[in-house]
Amino acid sequence: MDIFIDIILLTLLSATALAVARIRKLFCAIMMFGIFSLVSACLFVTMDAVDVAFTEAAVGTGIATILMLATMALTSTEEKRPPYQPLVALLVVVVTGSVLVYGTMDLPDYGDPMAPIHQHVAPRYIQQSPEEVGPPNMVTSVLASYRGFDTLGETAVIFTAGLSIYALLGLGRRENRDHIVEDDHA
Amino acid sequence: MHDHLILRIIAKMFIPFILLFALYVQFHGDYGPGGGFQAGVIFASALILYTLIFGLETAMRVVSPTALRILAASGVLIYGGTGVLCMLRGGNFLEYSMLAATPLAGQHLGIFLIELGVGTTVFAVMVMLFYGFSGRKDPSS
Amino acid sequence: MNLIGHYNYLISIFLMMVGFFVVICRGNLIKKLIGLNIFSTSVFILYITMGKVAGGTAPIVVPGPGPHIYTNPLPHVLILTAIVVGVATTAVGLALTVRIKERYGTIEEDEIRLKDESL
């Protein structure tokens, strides 16, 4: 049963992605991207990644879509028709894709419990984390405790992104300050 | 947006619940799905909804850009400070077991603190992003 | 290999290539960023696919006796942070797009190049 839901969602995802690639109106493309994120969040739920699904639903569907819409409102709403045929790009994509498919040939099947990824460090996380760290949610204990350095780095990246936005766009303060100055003169 | 009566009333009804849900996700992340990243984003989305309905000026009176800058930096500082605190108590950087009498209690406290730091930074940066984009004037107008 | 067992990999490669195609072929900068996001989502799907164990549940401890099968939590952690970092970097890209629009008056790649050459 799971596998059918999985296949249906993946097919929906590919249809949405193709629509994003084809549509020239940016508003529609951005909304399709929001749908794409939401469907991928559903897919993550079927693959038992509830935390990831939660994040994807909040971040990909909510914040990313809204930021893209804000950018579209500030720039242009329609993409121009490219003057040339995309044959070379298509060729590059097809060749890269076939090489990648060749690379996945000997990967373990979907859901194989004997896959190498499940043999190395994951058993330690699954068996020991309730005694060593405590929280029932293993994702939290791995995220915050075993891999705390990673998360510190990610937080620093987010902070840096905030700083760059502040440097690039400001926070709409200039207009505010002008108002205050005018008020003072009045 | 002063004429959208339905939107304004529905938003007013929903925003407290969104904020409450964000706090639930933040503090219940140990037991169910959730944690600092998701909670920060949900908290920010409540404020973004407020900004969309009531305008940027009003939202900036609720959470000022200065407060956002302080929050964004303090989140990273809480995280790093937890690590340094562990060092001061004789452990390694981010070794939470040193924070309390028993290792499990220490881990619990440490995870709580760093999730708080992550949540604060993510919230502040997400709102900062939205303020940055919506504060820009359309160059064509 | 069998097709059902590899369907996830194939689709995630397909999505990756759609994103790649949008990035290299479309001239509009917002469209390029959407393509980049599709590309990164396909990588997320690839990782989460690898972590799945057949018959497993979400990696949250189930109280009660008996051996429980859990899905591998490690890819979840990596992807969880990657999603949030991804949106932060996308936002920086969008901010650069806004600045380019203010400076050049367009966000189409070839028009920007024309303006650069005429300077």
Beta-sheet strand percentage of chain B? under 5%
Largest interface: A-C, 89 and 84 residues
CATH topology of chain C: Helix Hairpins
Structure summary, number of beta strands of chain C = 0
CATH class call of chain C = Mainly Alpha
Distance between the termini of chain C: 56 Å
- Global shape of chain B: elongated
Biggest sheet of chain B, open or closed, and with what strands and sense? none
Architecture blueprint of SSEs:
The complex is a heterotrimer of chains A (186), B (141) and C (119).
Chain A: H1 2-22, H2 26-46, H3 50-74, H4 87-104, H5 122-132, H6 138-146, H7 148-169, H8 173-185
Chain B: H1 5-27, H2 36-54, H3 56-62, H4 65-88, H5 103-135
Helix pairs in contact in B: 1-2, 2-3, 2-5, 4-5
Chain C: H1 3-25, H2 29-51, H3 73-104, H4 109-118
Question: How would you describe the overall organization of this protein?
Answer:
The complex is a heterotrimer of chains A (186), B (141) and C (119). Among the domains of chain A are: 1-79; 138-186, no CATH class. Helices cover 75% and strands 0% of the residues of chain A. Chain A has 8 helices and no strands. Chain A has helices spanning 2-22, 26-46, 50-74, 87-104, 122-132, 138-146, 148-169, 173-185. The radius of gyration of chain A is 23 Å and the shape is globular. The model of chain A is unreliable at 175-186 (pLDDT under 50). With 141 residues, chain B is mainly α. Chain B is 75% helix and 0% strand. Chain B has 5 helices and no strands. The mean pLDDT of chain B is 88. Helices cover 74% and strands 0% of the residues of chain C. Chain C is elongated and about 75 Å long. Chain C starts with a helix and ends with a helix. At the A-C interface, helix 1, helix 2, helix 3, helix 4 and helix 5 of A face helix 1, helix 2 and helix 3 of C.
